[in-house]
Design brief:
Elements (H helix, E strand, L loop, with lengths): L1 H13 L1 H30 L11 E8 L2 E4 L3 H10 L3 E14 L7 E8 L3 H5 L5 E2 L15 E4 L1 H8 L9 E4 L2 E8 L15 E4 L3 H4 L15 E6 L5 H17 L9 E6 L9 H36 L1 H9 L4 H30 L2 H5 L15 H27 L3 H5 L12 H33 L10 E7 L7 H16 L4 E7 L12 E6 L11 E7 L3 H5 L3 E4 L13 E5 H7 L9 E4 L2 E9 L15 E5 L7 E8 L6 H12 L6 E5 H6 L3 H35 L1 H9 L4 H30 L15 H27 L3 H5 L3
Parallel strand pairs: 4-9, 6-8, 15-20, 17-19
Antiparallel strand pairs: 1-2, 1-10, 1-11, 3-4, 3-10, 5-8, 6-9, 7-8, 12-21, 12-22, 13-21, 14-15, 14-18, 16-19, 17-20, 18-19
Helix pairs in contact: 1-10, 2-8, 2-10, 2-12, 8-12, 8-14, 8-20, 10-12, 14-20, 14-22, 14-23, 15-18, 20-23, 22-23
């Protein structure tokens, strides 16, 4: 074995070009699939290393009319704790923004987890310092004025102070005692979104609106998590969960619970965070990585076969001197193993860097993303397995050739070179298969790119030019309802007078945002009789005067809100086209009445539909708008449209807010164009990733065709020399090689079209405005494939046409 290894290293040193190409090509394939597996491991297998049996945690969410992902509430948590027998433990948590004060500067916003008191016990996490919350009644407000810090916050904000436990910090202007520090790398279980600190539910009243019993009266949305009892299957727990959901809904007196249900998901498909999004993309990426790996294996296998063909005489001589076929095969497999080990090491090192690109691909949301991308036993075992597969996949090609060696024919130099290689046809078939796989990836890439183009260029229904948006949260600053209304009116008046501001407004939700919005309430429509089990839960947003003017959204009928639509005036509402068409089919929505929050509101305007959430699936569902000065919102967004460039508005915005409250932090400052760009991530990310795989696949296939045809030309040099010597035109020789390229490409396109017929069905759900059989994408894939393959064949064809007969035949 040692001799085989030493000989293999000497052989690779003699052919450094071949060794570098083979190692780098294999490293590319191994790095690609290891990167995707690292992402899959971070979502599917080992999302939270510090959590006890993390894969056994189940996340619960609500569904209405078959649509999932709606929040649950504390009343449902209580109900499940009392009635569900399949769960051994239940806990709850939610993301919650807080302001952390220090010194005379403005408070700084952090994202915290607001959690049930048994949260950390449920997870099985142990503190780095101090302790966690002791289990207590979550609704015993003010009974535990405590906070737990994350390890990163403890190090960055408090300089790793070992005496932090017992200190008091100010959160949302409330003093809280630090009781512990979470372990390193633990940032919560919110689907990849990092939390910097944790508060118990019992502090919700103090750090939010101050209203009594916010968990119940405030209908605070929660993420409920559970663990199954031993012996209980997912199907059994889900069946009991559905039954309890229907039982709970039947006890409620609200149309919101018509066709309402509860669902259970594993961590990879939880409704919160980005695990669910990644879980949808990972299978697609894994398929692309496998296709790339097959291309790599085929290319390297062909290179090894070509190299072993050049060593046929060497193998024949060694065989005639007594070497057995098993000995020769072992030598070739050892050489392949050395290449595979080097490629595996290079691929693993590359994957450590490539896996971090996941953070670049995710949208800029103002939140921190944390995924477990550290190598663990699964990843190392996968890498070892890929190395073994590489040895088997690539090493068997030359080994098979050695077993077919004929000493007599191999020792007659030139016997094969004129009549042509017996393996050329099989090699060309392999190249056609390579191009077929490449065609499939290019076609899918084209479909996703065209989908992204369609989504980005879809008219949002409002103008994004010269608009700046930001957010404020008055509840975190201790404002009550009366004080908030006064602040909002004063802020709006001041913003209107800022030089360069054309119009300004406030809103509870900026269109096409990833967070916020979609707040459904029970709405009654005067004169409309809902069908049996029809839900009247409709999205209700709150906007200030001039919102539609600022967004340049036309009011089709009626008027916009004015400064007179305050809490002392009769309730008024504006509805969108979708709402008006559905509930007033005769066109008499204007002047109609709806009931929201047990208040009767007159419809005073109808606005044109615009994209509410996402351009790839938004269909203009009904939306109701209430006046922000009649519908209290402590958290709201500012929208400013200026005649000057956007950057000139930012200092003015900061100064205006500071003039009213110098300690109030402004969050999420960005242009409206940047704001809506984040909503495109679900179409942009697959298009980017598959396009990268498509380019890599095309590069590998092109290099493979070039190397194969170049070797074929060298192999057939004496044949071409004889043809030229017998009078053949050099252009004919050039055409012979190009025709071989054409046959390879034609076979690849035909096989690829057959494979694409089935492959496009897998990405159908990711397409918008593009048919799975889009002719433009198909034609583009054909043009790219043909042009690159012809280019790859042009250089060997030119070399063949320039063969000099006297030099080539001199050895004969």
């Amino acid at each position: 074995m040692r001799q085989d290894l030493q000989y293999a290293l000497r052989q690779l040193q003699r052919s450094p070009g071949f060794a570098v190409v083979a190692v780098l090509t294999l490293a590319l394939g191994i790095a690609a699939i290891t990167t995707v597996f690292t992402w899959a491991n971070a979502v599917l297998f080992n999302p939270w290393p510090q959590v006890r049996s993390a894969s056994e945690i189940r996340s619960l969410d609500a569904g209405i009319h078959g649509d999932r992902g709606f929040t649950l509430h504390y009343t449902q948590l209580q109900y499940l704790r009392q009635h569900h027998t399949g769960f051994s433990e239940l806990a709850a948590h939610e993301m919650f923004p807080v302001d952390l004060s220090g010194g005379d500067s403005r408070p700084q916003r952090y994202w915290s987890g607001i959690v049930a008191s048994n949260y950390f016990q449920f997870l099985g996490v142990r503190p780095y310092l101090g302790r966690f919350f002791a289990p207590h009644d979550d609704r015993a407000y003010g009974s535990a004025s405590e906070v737990v810090l994350s390890y990163d916050l403890w190090r960055s904000r408090f300089q790793s102070d070992p005496g932090i436990v017992g200190r008091t910090i100010t959160v949302n202007r409330q003093p809280l005692a630090v009781i512990g520090v979470a372990p390193e790398h633990f940032t919560g279980i919110y689907g990849g979104l990092a939390q910097s600190l944790w508060l118990p539910f019992s502090e919700l009243q103090a750090v939010s609106t101050g209203k009594p019993d916010p968990l119940i009266n405030g209908k605070f949305g929660l993420e409920i998590v559970s663990r199954l009892r031993p012996g209980v299957t997912d199907d059994q727990a889900s069946a009991e969960l559905h039954a309890l959901a229907h039982q709970f809904a039947a006890e409620q007196n609200s149309s919101y619970y018509n066709q309402w249900d509860m669902f259970m998901s594993d961590p990879a498909h939880m409704s919160r965070g980005f695990f669910g999004t990644l879980a949808q993309i990972v299978p697609l990426l894994l398929g692309a990585a496998v296709l790339l790996l097959v291309l790599v294996y085929t290319n390297v296998g062909v290179l090894l076969v070509q190299r072993s063909s050049r060593r046929v005489r060497e193998m024949a001589i060694r065989s005639s001197l007594g070497a057995t076929r098993a000995r020769l095969v072992r030598q070739l497999v050892t050489e392949t193993a050395v290449i595979a080990l080097l490629a595996g090491l290079a691929g693993w090192l590359a994957s450590l860097l490539l896996s971090r690109t996941l953070y670049v691909l995710l949208p800029a949301t103002g939140l921190s993303f944390v995924f477990n991308l550290q190598p663990d036993v699964r990843i190392l075992a996968f890498l070892l397995g890929m190395t073994v597969v590489t040895v088997l996949a690539c090493g068997l090609f030359p080994a098979r050739q050695v077993l077919q060696i004929s000493q007599v024919s191999a020792l007659h130099d030139g016997a094969v070179s004129v009549v042509g290689s017996r393996t050329r046809k099989r090699r060309n078939v392999m190249f056609s298969i390579q191009l077929a796989l490449c065609f499939v990836v290019l076609l899918v890439s084209g479909l996703l790119v065209r989908t992204f183009w369609k989504v980005v260029h879809r008219d949002p229904g409002f103008s994004v030019q010269n608009v700046v948006v930001a957010s404020l949260d008055l509840s975190r600053a201790g404002y009550n309802e009366e004080k908030s209304f006064a602040f909002q009116r004063s802020l709006l008046e001041k913003l209107r007078t800022v030089p360069g501001v054309g119009s300004a407004s406030l809103t509870s939700y900026v269109p096409m945002g990833l967070s916020g919005g979609g707040n459904v309430r029970d709405v009654g429509v005067e004169g409309y009789q809902p069908a049996k089990a029809e839900s009247m839960s409709i999205v209700v947003d709150s906007v200030a005067p001039d919102f539609f003017k600022t967004m340049l959204v036309p009011i089709l009928q009626g008027r916009e809100f004015t400064d007179r639509d305050t809490d002392n005036a009769p309730c008024v509402a504006i509805v969108n086209e979708g709402m008006a068409r559905k509930y007033w089919p005769k066109g008499d929505a204007l002047g109609g009445h709806i009931e929201v929050n047990k208040n009767s509101c007159e419809v005073v305007g109808i606005n044109r539909n615009y994209i509410y959430r996402n351009a790839s699936w938004d269909t203009g569902d009904p939306v109701v708008y209430l006046s922000l000065f009649q519908d209290y919102q402590s958290w709201f967004n500012l929208v400013l449209r200026g005649s000057a460039p956007n950057q000139n508005l930012l200092p003015a915005l900061d100064a205006t807010v500071a003039s009213l409250d110098s300690t109030l932090p402004i969050n999420d400052i960005e242009t409206l164009r940047d704001h809506i760009a984040t909503s495109y991530y679900d179409t942009r990310t697959p298009a980017q990733l598959i396009s990268v795989y498509g380019i890599c696949s095309l590069l590998v296939a092109t290099l493979g065709i070039y190397a194969g045809l170049a070797y074929s030309v060298v192999e057939r040099t004496k044949e071409f020399a004889l043809r030229v010597a017998l009078g053949a035109d050099r252009g004919r020789i050039f055409g012979m090689v190009l025709s071989e390229t054409t046959r390879i490409v034609s076979g690849g396109i035909l096989l690829g079209a057959l494979g694409a017929f089935f492959a496009v069905r897998l990405v159908k759900s990711l397409l918008y405005g593009v048919s799975p059989f889009d002719p433009i994408s198909g034609l583009g894939a054909v043009i790219v494939l043909v042009s690159t393959a012809v280019f790859a064949g042009w250089l060997p064809a030119r070399r063949a046409a320039l063969v000099e007969p006297m030099q080539a035949l001199r050895s004969e």
